[in-house]
Amino acid sequence: MRRLLPIAFVLAASAALAQAPKTFDTVASGFERPWAVAFLPGGEFLVTEKPGALRWVSAQGRISAPLSGLPAVEFAGQGGLLDVVVDRDFERTRALSLCFTEPGIGADKGKNGTALARATLKADRSGLENVQVVFRQAPKLAGRHHYGCRIVESADGQTLFLTLGERYSGMKQAQTLDNHLGKVVRVRKDGSAPADNPFAQTAGARPEIYSLGHRNPQGALLDADGRLWVHEHGPQGGDEINLVRPGVNYGWPVITHGKDYGGGKIGDGITHQDGLEQPVWHWTPSIAPSGFAHITSPAYGQAWQGSFVVGSLKFRQLQRVVLQDGRLVGQPQVFADDIGRVRDVRQGPDGLLYVLTEDEPGRLLRLRAAP
Ligand SMILES: [Ca+2]
């Protein structure tokens, strides 16, 4: 009897593994450095490419020529055309948001920064119209790193959250309120700051700031309970998941669970300090997280419903995490390995997971539902 117990356990475990969804179908292939996917009615998509093209993708996977009407985008290093999100009421309004690296002009010539544009998609899907840059990260800096740039529409559709990296050279400024480096901001769709933002009444503070002390957040979402989560790239180690609350300081670069490239200390080399929020989870070594999805659909079975999925550029993986009561339960689970450098992962309106991989040829993948 004693010897049977471990055998039964192994059988049960392998049966559970066999049921884990891991079959991907290729929806479309041939993108150049795809960065974000948005979902249109009728099973169509919009996909951004970092070099600057926005493409429409038919339900059959046909990729269009670049859409017309985009604002000027600077493509260099980590910058380019980055996120795209369509409004909750897109079917009625055809309204969407884009974020991208905007080249500086005039006194800012030679510098760049993250910017947020609003636009409407033409009815024939050939281009954008009513394009307006409504928010610009300040200050613009020279350099090609840490743009952040994930957009999340609030549940009531009235405001947008935008994640902003500290541009690497602006890391110390992630701790001060007179700039948008290393921040999550919350703006109305015309770019103005709501009066109930946490620092809207603080003298000298940028009124758009919602949270501070971030490094380079490239995954963001609202969960089914309306909470805002981000993940962010650490330095060498110390990638983080954070539950974002208004006015909270997430610590970078004063505290971090990572080290400087080459292994040196960052600042005083401390991981905790009063008044600075600890991450809900941190990865060492770094996985280079990009893309963040919340599985609300039953497509992948009961055990997966309610969990979250993080893409890894570095390990070419998807990891599933369970976040409950503001903390991570257990460990992240790798369920798709070596599928390419994952740039984006989202749940589509059909309840299935869609994944963008940026290796040549860039692909849009769909995870098949559990059998
Ligand atoms: Ca932190």
Instruction: Determine the N-to-C terminus distance.
Output: 33 Å
Annotated CATH homologous superfamily? TolB, C-terminal domain
Give the SSE order as H and E letters: HEEEEEHEEEEEEEEEEEEEEEEEE
In the sheet with the most strands, the strands line up as: 1-23-22-21
- Weakly predicted, low-confidence segments: 1-18
Cα-atom radius of gyration: 20 Å
Instruction: Write the CATH fold name.
Output: Neuraminidase
Q: Class, according to the CATH hierarchy?
A: Mainly Beta
- Give the percentage of residues in beta strands: 35-45%
Total DSSP helices? 2
Class of secondary structure makeup: mainly beta
Main beta sheet:
4 strands, antiparallel
What small molecules accompany the polymer chains? calcium ion
Helix content: under 10%
Total number of distinct structural domains:
1
Q: Mean of the pLDDT scores? A: 94
Task: Provide structural commentary.
The chain has one domain (25-367): TolB, C-terminal domain (Neuraminidase, 6 Propeller). The two termini are 33 Å apart. The chain has 371 residues and is mainly β. The strands form six sheets. Strands 1-23-22-21 form a four-stranded antiparallel β-sheet, with no helix packed on it. The protein has a four-stranded antiparallel β-sheet with strand order 5-6-7-8. The chain contains two helices and 23 strands. It has helices spanning 4-19, 90-93, and strands at residues 24-31, 34-40, 44-49, 54-57, 81-86, 95-103, 112-121, 128-136, 151-153, 159-164, 183-188, 209-212, 217-222, 228-232, 239-244, 281-283, 289-294, 308-312, 317-324, 327-336, 342-347, 353-357, 362-367. It is globular. Calcium ion is lined by residues 240, 250-252, 279.
